[in-house]
């Protein structure tokens, strides 16, 4: 009998695929099961009339030579397969509040200098704020690639303090507080709830460097799949897991919609945890655990307008643009029909490096799942005329809002396509179409966390709900999950080795 251990991974999102790579490289026999036609989950792209669009990941940070994501991508063998295009280092993000624009530059000194120019009276507080951001972001073990040196105490403290609570302690000026969290669509922050640690990680991650992936984020998924296959594993699309079959002590195999049964020694669910729980009816999973996971709030959903531009009409915008139609950048996720969209995020896809003109762009705005409730259960592409009318009305509202800051945009659009939180629910299984899965809430503490281990000893969870969302957040989750097979220190060591 072979000593090689079999692992079945459910879901080919970044979490599932990166676990597949780490374990395949370490001698495990990997099978990834994906429900959809395409791999990648939120790394998926789609093409209409020859123009390509990203549905989830649009830009990444800390990926310059020697930075943390660069090292991890080298280890995962992705770097050779993707081309990164740097966003404008003087303003990778632009926050515009009622048309007043603030640019976020890369680099600590540059950030402090720029913000001190915008808010000269706040210079000392800006220094204090940035020092804290760097300390909190650096407190994670991954930042050091050395488990022992992580500062758990500092990390924990700022997991329990809200972003606005900490900013209120540092600043008195309301405007600077609003600007500093102006890119909050990147982490769907909620006032009084989202931990300052989340803000610090994201702020530091993109401040270090910011890039688009040339040709689209699906190249990351394609590369990860290639590596799994190189080490003898398989990634199977159109294989929806319908049941994780267990005996009284452990999981035995996964049943799929097509009736195929996959036996293995270990199982990892890279899906939203509620999708994973739906697959299990073992007594090993206690009702109290189910209800705790079910009660964790979700991040808001998102409405997207994917625009295809008329040829050579729109200059490629090498920044992300966050527009606000409100003076406060908080609470944009709660809106009425008449004041939506309170804010939006507008970006271009980098279809080739140093392109002069953009081919496509995307506009994102928060949307609550309640708005889609009446179409739940309807099939994709056949939800009915009222759904199509709803989407058109929302798209026109959103485009008109962006047009105010980008005059001429409407006339440059050759065609557009839309997606709603329901689309995300159907394509990725994210609960209530939530953008980033479960929401972090300082008041919930441990009860708001999804553990990577389950009471079924050979079943683990991974993906954005374990640690946090985003390319680095998900990969940290992967390291946490795979540390059950290899230990975190081994993985850190392997990352360092791969970068020698
Ligand atoms: C609009 C948007 C913009 C974003 N922008 C960025 C960005 O610019 N930068 C960044 O770093 N991050 C960004 N993110 C976040 C990032 O894309 C996600 O955190 C990450 O890709 C999630 O990966 P995952 O593996 O956890 O989950 P997912 O990508 O959701 O993957 C889960 C997979 O499981 C599959 N699945 C579910 N149920 C089953 C089943 N029963 N059987 C088989 N398969 C199943 C799904 O089909 C899916 O493929 C964005 C996300 C969104 C939604």
Can you walk me through this structure?
With 500 residues, the protein is α/β, with parallel strands linked by helices. It has a domain at 6-40 and 217-296 and 440-498: FAD/NAD(P)-binding domain (3-Layer(bba) Sandwich), CATH 3.50.50.60. The chain is built from 17 helices and 20 strands. It has helices spanning 14-25, 68-75, 108-118, 123-138, 141-144, 152-159, 163-170, 174-180, 196-208, 218-230, 273-278, 287-295, 385-403, 409-412, 421-428, 470-486, 488-498, and strands at 6-10, 29-33, 45-48, 51-54, 60-61, 84-86, 93-97, 100-104, 210-213, 234-236, 241-246, 251-256, 261-263, 266-269, 301-309, 320-324, 343-348, 360-367, 413-419, 459-461. A seven-stranded mixed beta sheet has the order 8-7-16-17-18-15-19. A five-stranded parallel beta sheet has the order 10-2-1-14-20, covered by helices on one side. A hairpin with a 2-residue loop joins strand 3 and strand 4. It is globular, with a radius of gyration of 22 Å. The two termini are 37 Å apart. The model has no long low-confidence stretch (mean pLDDT 95). The structure holds flavin-adenine dinucleotide.
Task: Output the keywords.
FAD/NAD(P)-binding domain, 500 residues, five-stranded parallel beta sheet, binds flavin-adenine dinucleotide, 19% strand, alpha/beta, seven-stranded mixed beta sheet, 20 strands
């Amino acid at each position: 009998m072979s000593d090689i251990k079999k692992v079945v991974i459910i879901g080919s999102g970044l979490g599932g695929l990166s676990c597949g790579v780490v374990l395949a490289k370490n001698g495990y026999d990997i099978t990834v099961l994906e429900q959809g036609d395409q791999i990648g989950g939120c790394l998926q792209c789609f093409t209409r009339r020859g123009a390509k669009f990203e549905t989830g990941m649009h830009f990444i940070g800390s990926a310059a030579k020697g930075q943390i994501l660069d090292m991890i991508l080298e280890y995962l063998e992705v770097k050779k397969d993707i081309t990164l295009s740097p966003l404008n280092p003087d303003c990778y993000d632009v926050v515009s509040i009622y048309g007043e624009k603030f640019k976020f530059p890369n680099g600590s000194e540059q950030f402090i200098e720029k913000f001190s120019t915008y808010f000269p009276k706040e210079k000392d507080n800006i220094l204090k704020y940035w020092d804290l951001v760097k300390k909190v972001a650096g407190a994670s073990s991954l930042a050091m690639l050395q488990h022992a040196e992580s500062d758990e105490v500092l990390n924990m403290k700022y997991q329990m303090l809200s972003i606005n609570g900490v900013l209120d302690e540092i600043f008195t000026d309301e405007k600077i507080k609003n600007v500093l969290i102006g890119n909050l669509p990147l982490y769907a922050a909620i006032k009084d709830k989202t931990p300052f640690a989340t803000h610090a990680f994201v702020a530091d991650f993109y401040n270090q460097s910011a890039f688009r992936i040339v040709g689209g984020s699906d190249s990351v998924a394609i590369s990860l799949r290639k590596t799994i296959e190189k080490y003898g594993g398989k990634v199977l699309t159109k294989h929806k897991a319908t049941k994780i079959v267990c005996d009284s002590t452990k999981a035995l195999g996964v049943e799929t919609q097509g009736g195929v049964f996959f036996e293995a020694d270990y199982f990892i669910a890279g899906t939203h945890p509620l999708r994973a729980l739906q697959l299990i009816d073992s007594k090993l999973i206690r009702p109290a655990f189910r209800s705790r996971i079910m009660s964790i709030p979700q991040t808001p959903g998102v409405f997207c307008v994917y625009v295809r531009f008329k040829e050579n009409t729109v200059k490629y915008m090498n920044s992300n643009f966050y527009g606000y139609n409100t003076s406060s950048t908080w609470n944009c996720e709660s809106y009425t029909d008449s004041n939506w969209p309170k804010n939006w995020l507008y970006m271009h896809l980098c279809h080739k490096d140093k392109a002069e003109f953009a081919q496509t762009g995307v506009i994102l705005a928060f949307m609550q799942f309640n708005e889609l409730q009446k179409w739940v259960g309807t099939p994709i592409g056949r939800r009915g005329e009222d759904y199509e009318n709803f989407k058109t009305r929302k798209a026109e509202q959103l485009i008109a809002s962006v047009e105010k800051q980008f005059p001429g945009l409407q006339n440059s659009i050759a065609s557009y396509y839309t997606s709603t939180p329901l689309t995300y629910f159907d394509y990725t299984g994210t609960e209530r179409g939530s953008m980033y899965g479960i929401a972090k809430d300082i008041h919930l503490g441990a009860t708001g966390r999804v553990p990577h281990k389950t009471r079924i000893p050979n079943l683990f969870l991974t993906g954005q709900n374990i640690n946090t969302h985003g390319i680095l957040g998900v990969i940290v989750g992967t390291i946490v999950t795979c540390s059950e097979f290899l230990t975190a220190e081994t993985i850190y060591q392997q990352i360092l080795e791969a970068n020698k």
